[in-house]
Amino acid sequence: MIFSHAPTVSPLTGLLLVVVPLAFNVAFALLAARFDYPDILRRPTAEVLAAFRAGGTSLVLLWWAFALTAVLMVPLVVLLSEAIGDGDRGLLAVTTTVGVLAAAVQFLGLVRWPFLVPYLARADDEPDASEARREAIDVVFQSFNRYLGVDVGEHLGYALTGAWTTLVGIALARSAVVPSWLGVVGVVVGPVLVACSLEFVGRHEPIGWRLAERLTPVAYVAWSLWLVAIGVALLV
Fold first, then answer.
1. How far apart are alpha carbons 173 and 185 in whole angstroms?
2. Which pLDDT score, from 0 to 100, does residue 9 have?
3. Are the beta carbons of 187 and 155 closer than 8 angstroms?
4. How confident is the model at residue 205 (pLDDT cuts 50, 70, 90)?
5. Which pLDDT value is given to residue 198?
6. 121 vs 141: CA distance, rounded Å
7. Which residues contact 224 (CB under 8 A, 6 or more apart)?
8. Longest dimension (CA), the chain
9. CB–CB of 234/178 below 8 Å?
10. CA distances from 141 to 8, 75, 104, 145 (A)
C-alpha cells in the first residue's frame, strides 16, 4: 500500500511529535536524578521541601520546563488531528477536545512545583516558624499533592491521555497518512494508560499498588516511542 500525506500535514506536526515526548522524558529523567522524583513524594513533607530547597533555582526551572511539556501537547494534539486529513471529522473533533483536556490537567498537576512549592519550601525554612505553622505547611503541601498531583495530574491526566491515545489510534488505523499498524499500537497503549489512572484504587492494597507503580512508567515509555514513530512517519 502507498501511504499519502494529507495536504494539511506540516513539518511542525512531525517535529512536535518527536520533540515533545523526548523533552518530557528528558525532564522526567533529570528530576529523577536530581530530586529522586517521584519516590521522594513518599517521604515526610519536611524532607521533600528540604530537598527542594537544596536544588535551588535550577530545580525550579527544571520543574517549569517539565510543566511546559504539557503545554506543548496542545499544539501537538491540534496539529495531529489536522494531519489526519482523511479521517472522520466527528471523531477527530472529539479526539482534539480530549487531547487538549489531557494537556490541561497534566499542566495543572505540574505547575504547583515551580510556583507553590518554592513558597512552601521558604516558609518551612524560616527560623522563627512555629510548630503550628510547619503543620499548616504540611497540610497545604500534602493536600495539593493529593488534589493536583494524584487526582488531577495523575488520575485525570492518565485517563484523558489514554482516551486521546485510543482515539488517535482508531483514526490512524482508518487513515492512509501513516502505516495502519501505528494506529493499532495506539489502540493497545491507550487502554493501558487508562488502567494506570486507577492506581489510586490500589493504594491501600500492596499488590495493586506495586503493579500500577511498575506499569505506569512502562506505559509512558511505550506512549512516547509511539508518538516519536508517528512523527518520523509524517516527516519521511
1. 9
2. 62
3. no
4. very low
5. 82
6. 10
7. 21, 22, 24, 25
8. 72
9. yes
10. 45, 31, 21, 6
Cα distances (Å, whole numbers) of residue 165 to 10, 16, 213: 21, 16, 20
Give the separation between CA 11 and CA 9, rounded to whole angstroms: 7
**Residue 85: band (very low, low, confident or very high) from pLDDT cuts 50, 70, 90:** confident
Q: What does the domain layout of the chain look like in residue ranges?
A: 11-235
pLDDT above 50 for 207: no
> Of 95-99, 192-196, 221-225, where does mean pLDDT reach its minimum?
192-196
Q: Which residue has the cell 500525506?
A: 5
Return the residue matching grid coordinates 488502567.
195
Task: Give the integer Cα–Cα distance in Å for 213 and 199.
Answer: 8
Instruction: State the Cα–Cα distance between residues 8 and 81, nearest whole angstrom.
Output: 10
Q: Is the pLDDT of residue 208 over 50?
A: no
Nearest C-alpha neighbor of 52 from the set 60, 44, 64, 42:
60
Please compute, for residue 141, the number of CA atoms within 13 A of its CA located in the half-sphere on the CB side.
26
**For the segment 121-175, what is each residue's pLDDT rounded down to a tens digit?**
999 999 998 999 999 999 999 999 999 998 999 999 999 999 999 999 999 999 9
Q: Which residue has cell 507503580?
A: 213
Quick one: three-class SS letters along 32-98?
HHHHCCCHHHHCCHHHHHHHHHHHHHHHHHHHHHHHHHHHHHHHHHHHHHHHCCCCCHHHHHHHHHH
Residues 6+ apart with CB under 8 A from 158: 193, 194, 196, 197, 199, 216
Please give the grid coordinates belonging to residue 41.
513524594
